[in-house]
Design goal:
Number of helices: 9
Largest sheet: 5 strands, antiparallel
Order of helices and strands: EEEEEEHEHHHEEEHHHHEEHE
Helix content: 25-40%
CATH class of the largest domain: Alpha Beta
Number of strands: 13
CATH topology of the largest domain: Ribosomal Protein S5, domain 2
Oligomer: single chain
Number of domains: 2
Structural class: alpha+beta
Length: about 290
């Protein structure tokens, strides 16, 4: 029987860079939310159990991913097999909808979905320590994408705060089509190994009543990678400003290391109308309305 999972976009509502370890890894504090997995702001992954592993990639953006052997789905299955020798596997099919190198964790979302599928097939709980370790070994965003729940994350991304009881936030995600490599953006930010920025720590999280309350809180926060990303790709700054000027937008910011930006709206109708306006004005952009939570 075929098993399916969705890999929703990960959105960094805030991203404070609070230091850099001596080994070069940056230390973060970030409020993370996820797109509605039923929306178009998510990849799809299926698994047909069988003998041996294979991966087929399809979808509008599948051609951007290169060799399937290097795909994070393949790497996730390999790490799962190392953690759980003798596990069952099968034929995977990835339907790619999220843009690559876009600051919304597309590859990490796919890895999380692959680990969830392998866990379901083999009767492993998502909180199994070996599964969590496997996720952490795949990259900073994969542990939070394994669960795909809104949280405050810290460290290099592996420290997961409690799941937040957030409301669904009507939002629009927009990407102007310029890929930004995370390593390039961090390098451009210029923080030296061993540096600390304790004054940049994330403010405590309040209770969020609605999208307006979230927008007000986010104005007290930052994405510390915006200046570096905007220098490397000015069109991302233009995309954020364009979204912010659309009627009804409560707040706009870049997600992660870019170049996707998000805007918050009071209700889903306003978000859908904004997405239509943005698509009409910029037909080459990737634009999706969704609910973040």
């Amino acid at each position: 029987m075929q098993l399916t999972e969705r890999g929703p976009a990960k959105v960094n509502l805030s991203l404070h860079v609070v230091g850099r370890r001596a080994d070069g890894f940056h230390l973060l504090e970030s409020l993370v939310a996820f797109a509605d997995p039923g929306s178009a702001a998510a990849d799809g992954l299926s698994l047909e159990p069988g003998a041996g592993y294979s991966l087929a990639v399809e979808g509008e953006r599948g051609g951007d991913l290169g060799d399937p052997a290097d795909n994070l789905v393949t790497r996730a299955v390999q790490r799962f097999a190392l953690a759980f020798p003798g596990c069952r596997t099968g034929a995977f099919r990835l339907t790619k909808a999220l843009p690559v190198a876009s600051g919304i964790g597309g590859g990490s979302a796919d890895a999380g979905a692959a680990l969830r599928l392998m866990a379901r097939l083999n009767g492993i709980g998502l909180d199994h320590p070996l599964l969590v370790d496997a996720a952490a070994s795949l990259g900073g965003d994969v542990p939070v994408c394994l669960f795909s729940k809104a949280r405050l994350i810290s460290g290099i991304g592996h420290n997961l705060g409690p799941v937040l009881d957030t409301i669904g936030l009507p939002a629009v995600l927009a990407n102007p089509g310029v890929p930004l490599a995370t390593a390039d953006v961090f390098r451009e930010s210029g923080l030296k190994p061993g540096a600390r920025r304790d004054e940049r720590r994330h403010p405590p999280l309040p209770a969020f009543r609605d999208a307006a309350a979230m927008a007000a809180f986010l104005r007290e926060c930052r994405n510390d990678l915006e200046p570096a990303a905007f220098r490397l790709a000015p069109v991302v700054a233009a995309a954020r400003d364009t979204l912010a000027r659309i009627s009804g937008c409560l707040f706009a910011r870049m997600s992660g290391s870019g170049g996707t930006v998000f805007g918050l709206f009071a209700n889903a109708d306003a978000a859908r109308a904004a997405a239509l306006e943005l698509r009409s004005a910029h037909p080459g952009w990737w634009v999706q309305p969704t609910l973040l939570g």
